[in-house]
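--- STAGE predict ---
source: upstream dedup step, 1 unique chain passed
mode: sequence only
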Amino acid sequence: MKLYLLLISSILILLAETTKGEFICANKFNLYSPCHTTIYDSIPQDNKYRNTRQSTLLINEFMALNSKTCTDNKDNYSDWIEIYNPNNSEINLKGWSISDKSSRPKLHIFKNDIRIAPKGFLLLWANKDIDSKQSKNINIKLSGNGESIYLYKPDGNISDKITFGPQIADISYGRVPDGGNAWVYFDKPTPNGKNHSEGINHILPNPTANIRGGYYKEAINIELSCKEPNTEIRFTTNGSNPNQESALYSNPIIIDKTTTLRFRSFKDKYIPSLCASSTYIFDTKPSIATICITAEKDDLWGKAGIYDNPKSDIKVASYFEFFD
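--- STAGE serialize ---
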């Protein structure tokens, strides 16, 4: 098999001689998978019950795709889980365990004294760095595709459990208020601290283009749309991820040269959509397949870049296109 790797702006284009087949893009997730939580032995809000379940701890907030929010003890952007003590007394985590697999409740056992103050928080790094002396590193990693987190008491009973769907990079998911039953998204995460904001309940669907990426010979007019009404669509043509300062889509976009068009939906009181990308190549179409991978420049090179940190477990958001 012959491979050809081309770099256009922040686009990586891989040409591969291959037989015709189906490619599945792992980056395209259904962001509307439901998220369920089950609280075991939780403390009722009625004050007369406050002292009945003193051994309960809760999973209060987590981030399964940490690309630039905060770093662990080794300066890596590891996934994290925040534990909250809703009780009026201190709890020692020694003897407790945490897992992302119900079949392995003892996947990570806390062997050292880790005390959580009343109404206090503990930030755990889900980095599998169990050789480290840092007792706050745990032997699990979270999946951005969605999974479950289980917190077990020393007697083996579940203290708390959360099952979640696909997540967005640097958006956390947590309870409001702290220790409450409602789960929301936070565009301003609060690891190891109080969840001050009300959070956001919805994520916008990805916008779509009327013409898919590929090889073209003549200028094309690109129309963008979103299923959610009254949304703004912002776009860029330089390969960067659109933000609320990027150009506002209002009329068809004329594309007449090789361009990566990136576009994203925005709406007040909603989490912005993922960044969608369409790569339009104005050149002779080769006889072999083309793969385009689009990512932010800083996600490829630099402190948090995957190329400058080849041995790290850094996860970056990217968009994958396949042209047969």
